Amino acid sequence: MPSLSATETLIASSGRRSFRAVFEIILHSVLLLCAVVSIITTVGIVLVLLIESLQFFRDVSVWEFLTGTKWSPLLKPQHFGILPLFCGTFLVAAGSAVVAIPIGLGTAVFLSEYASPLIRDIVKPLLEVLAGIPSVVYGYLAVVFVSPIIKSLFASAELFNAANACIVVGFMILPTIISLSEDVLRSVPRSLREAAYALGATKLDVTVGVVVPAAMSGIMASFLLAIARAVGETMAVTLAAGATPKLTLNPLESIQTMTAYIVQVSQGDTPAGTLEYRTIFAVGLTLFIFTLLLNVIAQWILSRVREKYE
Amino acid sequence: MNLSQHSKGRPYAKFASSCFAVLCGFCTVLSVSVLVLLLWNVCSYGWSSLSWDFLTSWPSRFADKSGIWSALIGSLYLIGVTAAVSVPIGVGAAIYLEEYAPPSRWRTLVQINIANLAGVPSIVYGILGLGLFVRMMQLNRSVIAGGLTLTLVVLPIVILSAQESLRAVPSTIRQASYALGATRWQTIWHQLLPVALPGIMTGVILSLSRALGEAAPLVAIGAATYVRFTPSNLFTDEFSALPIQIFNWTDQPQKGFHEVAAAGIIVLLIVLISMNALAVILRQRFSKKIRW
């Protein structure tokens, strides 16, 4: 019983009480400091991105940056319109959502409504493993496996294209959708299901008509979180989608996302302090704001869901 | 009578219901088969390149002479630095938030901030690391700069999982300890931490396995892809890491390098899966031991 002996020593050495009080205060401040690190991180991100971006916006107007339709900071003549990168990011996020949402939702419904405990115990750890696979591995899969298949199906496809990225990023965000959606589906009260069965509904009616609508806001939040991941996804997209910033919605063309652009500049020898170097901070700031918005909305929805059923 | 009329009105209701079940089951099979496909593909490509020589050779311009020794050692150092920094800070922050901070606006602010940090793309942390560690602190592209950047990436996950384990300790334990006159720290050190430790360890291992697979932040701070030495000074020497090496090989047009990349992935996945297995074992062993 360690707590007893601790108390005993406390009583026995009441002369050392002041020492203990000081010790507690020091510990309190050390632990507080640990928590403050997270605040400092956020401030650090914002400051680093803002300072360099502001320098960037001295040379390039915000208007040109946000509405320009050509992105070529590394080639002459330079153009600094982020729309092509934005378009590439959007294409990958939307495409991966199209791949992942139906499969993910179907799997979540199966695991929560149909699967026996045994099947759930087998499938869930496998999905956890899938969630733990690094994104560079998905990039490899895109290059070696998906790209040749797409090339053989569509002769017009470029070797690296948006569709490659959509498929593997879709695989990547599957576990996010499945585990979150399954959680909210399972938290729908049993009484709702039983009431529907009592009215003569089939399992399909109960699932599609009662359980999924009841969990809808939580499911939406899982979609948003997954899309936020797809937007921030880097290595797989860099390997799969090519490096051609382009204003297109054709998934068979080579594109470039915001994240892939940052990697491209980081890999080269762009000297610090130049305009080209600062572009990655401006792009990073845009990416940060975008993912933050998606995350904040998703968190807000999820916190409301928790209030609803707890 | 009534019932049969009902089913007459919807003659295919049962059939449709079964079809839906099959469809959902099919989705599940599809999700799991992604994992099977991935493992099968990687193994069939990379198995032949996997050898002792591959593990202990330097990277090379020739695919068949390439090895991952420098990347393996680089990753090992990185994880060491990341663990050494992120575990004390992460667990400390979790203890502060769960045991010290009273429910207040300040705590809510920190909590929301951590949740949002967990959703920030890792490449953004890479840019932060580039601006903060590489340039401002002049750490260059060293192991320390890489490790600190990865620390920022995993810190929110470490904090959140440690908080969850602390929260799982029943409050009666705390009350009993305080009732016996223990101070706050005595309660934490002697009562809460021993019980919460397996859960915290599980979270730490999973976070570190995430750090091990991260390439984007390291690429952003400018980690080298072609390193033919192991870092001897953590503060100055350049380094490579497993995911960066795999990225570099996959990016090559030659087929030979893809095979080497697959072999590298096998090594990375073996390390990751054994870390995951360790976490699962920890979780199961200790969750059985403690009964309230």
UniProtKB/TrEMBL annotation, chain B:
Gene3D superfamilies: MetI-like. GO terms for cellular component: plasma membrane. It is found in: Cell membrane. It is a multi-pass membrane protein. The chain crosses the membrane at residues 20-47, 67-97, 117-137, 143-162, 192-212, 260-282. NCBIfam families: 3a0107s02c. This is Phosphate transport system permease protein PstA. The gene is pstA.
